[in-house]
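Page 37, top half.
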Amino acid sequence: MGELAGARQSGGVPLRYANLETDLPLLEAARQAAARIIDADPALAQPEHAPYRARIVAKYERGFELFRVG
């Protein structure tokens, strides 16, 4: 979220802002596309969805570990 003595702090969520006035159609199209993929392949097991799965696992690996434990 910020920097402390020049070192990036951990645990923050990087936010990217959208302009809802101009970006709403793009955001809605992305949401619909994601929903179609998840409806068709919830586990993202199909080869064409492997890059999505890899990115999700890499980004949220610790969360998946905790989910498996608990």
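Page 37, bottom half:
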Amino acid sequence: MSRLEVLPPASRNTKPKLLERVRETIRRKHYSLRTETTYVDWIKKYILFHHKRHPAEMGAAEMEQFLNYLAVQKGVAASTQNQALSALVFLYREVLRQDFDWMQNLERAKTPARLPVVLTETEVHQVLAHLDGQNWLMASLLYGSGLRLMECLRLRVKDIDFEYRQITVRDGKGAKDRVTMLPEASREVLKTHLQRIRLLHRENLDDGYGEVYLPFALEQKYKQAGKEWKWQYVFPATTRSIDPRSGKQRRHHLDEKVLQRAVKNAVRKARLTKLATCHTFRHSFATHLLQRGQDIRTVQALLGHKDVSTTMIYTHVLNRGGKGVMSPLDRDA
């Protein structure tokens, strides 16, 4: 439902404020709530930085001043600076409908090329040994299936295929679907987990709830689909909350911080010196498959990489020592 449909008649000719237009444009393009929140926040900061001037009155010089302020005075990372730039380009192109030559010449900050942190198979199992219950199950899927954290949290019941032992990742990075394996070690645990979640879902239905968010306006097309078991999140939140877009009380997926904190504690308890995070499991998944002789094109498909060059970064671990060269100290060893 558009904003104009819910406003009182006297307000229908009122032009929406800029940030409201930004939100409407983002939702029309089916961007995630996370992206909406991030973009709106950066646009607010941009406007406040220039003493509340309207962005339509500004251009390349003002944008460059803001980005330089972020890099020099605030000391933000290159990826953060590029995120702010993406938000501002979206504002001018998609909301204000301005696409000037200077926008084509904007240079993004160069992100440092860093090698991924990779755990050995022994280290992975040491970390998993300090996780239990739902946290163990999620971490086992990050490592055993190569999922990103948010891909794991956004899994729906319908995305799990126990017979074919596979997981379908819907609308992953780059708005692409892909299929990856369901680890045998996680299979029975996941079945038991889903039995418990189904009981919770039935209790919610009995209480008059049990509806879940549906993407791409499916809620309007299939009125009751949001209450169906197949659409429920595999890892739902412990409590219901208000959907900020619809205003409905629903049970969303688990907050990512739950697993992030659990993995951080598990890495500490395992006494590892590597700076391992949830995403390290995905790096380790790819590296260990290559170590076992899996061809790189298959690993690329499992990870959902657009270009094989992205997957090639994991081959650095396959070299023995630095670039596969023997140290002169070990020559006579």
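Margin note: The first helix runs from residue 3 to 6.
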